[in-house]
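FORM 7B: Structural annotation worksheet

SECTION A. Query
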Amino acid sequence: MSDPMSPSDAPPDVSPATNLLPAQRRQRIIEFLRRHGAVTLAQLEQALGVSVSTLRRDLDTLADRGEIDRTHGGALLRHQDYSTFEPDRHAASALAAGEKAAIGRAAAEQLQPRQSVIFDSGSTVLEAARAVVQRGIALTAVTNDLAIAQILGASAQIQVHVLGGVLRPGSPTLIGDALIQSARLIQADVLLCGAHALTDGLISETSADVAAAKRALIRAASVRRLLVDAGKLRPRAFMQVAPVAEFDEVLTAGDVPADEIERLEGLGVKVTLVTG
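SECTION B. Predicted structure
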């Protein structure tokens, strides 16, 4: 697991809460959830800089007041349709940033020079793209994410193919029928895929268009690796993408329950818990 954030490294939407009154700290938690929709205790501990026992009491109080719903190891914001809730893109990148970077490095280390690799859209896959460029290996890369394409394009050794499509509002992600048709012509060596949620062996997304794009990318690769931090082990979102059993490996990091690892391995999926 990555080292805890220092106060200066905390996500921009929160700040250390050690000197706040309980009511102020709980309001900070609510603000955090309004941006992310869901959160784990480990993520709150890292972001707010207070103990897990204190945070448990805060979440219990907020649940008793009807403001949140408690989950295993975390909470959801009540009074919203969580299944279609789309977190702020910049906030999502800041959440569990250390875990995402560690997963990205591990995924990049597994790649072999001159492989063809599909980089799905998402903040954790973006970290893998950064790590690939730092490795300096030659690849043929395919992506439906303009931010990832820009990062990969900084390397003279990576040939970048951007799948055509419609730009999703407020996002660097390309979606739509043109993308799906283009993906049908590809058979890449590896897919690095992200997800909004992984729940009881199912991968899901908040958007039908994003889910359809991911399904097309899954079909276009021989080896499929899912990159998800512990915070993505949460209630199912609106649209099913695929059973996790369609993947060869799940790379994860953070406070992942042992029973969840056993569940995934029982489905025939290799689980790599990244610890640094």
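SECTION C. Observations
The chain has a mean pLDDT of 86. Residues 6 and 114 are 38 Å apart (CA to CA).

SECTION D. Sign-off
Analyst initials: ____
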